């Protein structure tokens, strides 16, 4: 009789203990809600939770934002640990016009009939070029890291 009472009490207590724990889906919803409250996010962020381990993915504007999102996710009740897969975009470096002018003029010297103009980081190519030569010229101009290339070349 005492054994039956003990087993019944054990069953009730284990149901109460395990029944009160948050489910992964509920934790995931809470993590996503908390992350969306961070106004520094550069784009949408997603979260998945498995056995209390939250994995967050998306893009942040900087490392401080990434760290803040990790802290926010960790602060959610039921999260045991956080895998922070958020990315921070690398800054794009654009050469100044003086460097672009020098580099572009050197690049087009190998292609008679082609000229290059630079304004505001944009390289504009004019003239005519053989189809077989175009990829090499474009590769050389893009290696200069301009803001963009305006190709007005006539291809022969």
Characterise this structure:
The N and C termini lie far apart (99 Å). Strands 1-2-3 form a 3-stranded mixed sheet, covered by helices on one side. A 3-stranded mixed sheet has the order 4-5-6. The chain is built from 5 helices and 6 strands, in the order ααββαβαββαβ. The chain is 41% helix and 30% strand. The chain has 156 residues and is an alpha/beta fold. It folds into 2 domains: 23-87, Histidine-containing Protein, Chain: A (2-Layer Sandwich); 97-155, Histidine-containing Protein, Chain: A, CATH 3.30.1340. A hairpin with a 2-residue loop joins strand 1 (41-50) and strand 2 (53-60). Helix 2 (24-36) runs antiparallel to helix 3. It is rod-shaped. The chain has helices spanning 2-19, 24-36, 63-74, 97-108, 134-142; strands spanning 41-50, 53-60, 81-87, 114-119, 122-129, 148-155.
């Amino acid at each position: 009789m005492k054994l039956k009472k003990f087993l019944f009490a054990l069953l009730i207590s284990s149901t109460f203990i395990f029944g009160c724990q948050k489910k992964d889906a509920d934790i995931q919803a809470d993590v996503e809600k908390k992350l969306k409250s961070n106004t520094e996010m550069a784009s949408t962020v997603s979260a998945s939770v498995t056995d209390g381990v939250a994995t967050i993915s998306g893009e942040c504007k900087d490392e401080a934002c990434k760290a803040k999102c990790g802290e926010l996710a960790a602060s959610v009740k039921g999260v045991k640990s956080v895998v922070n897969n958020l990315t921070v975009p690398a800054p794009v470096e654009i050469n100044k016009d003086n460097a672009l002018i020098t580099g572009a003029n050197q690049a087009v010297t190998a292609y008679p009939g082609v000229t290059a103009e630079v304004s505001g980081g944009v390289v504009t190519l004019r003239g005519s070029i053989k189809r077989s030569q175009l990829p090499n010229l474009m590769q050389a101009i893009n290696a200069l890291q301009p803001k963009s290339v305006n190709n007005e070349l006539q291809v022969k």
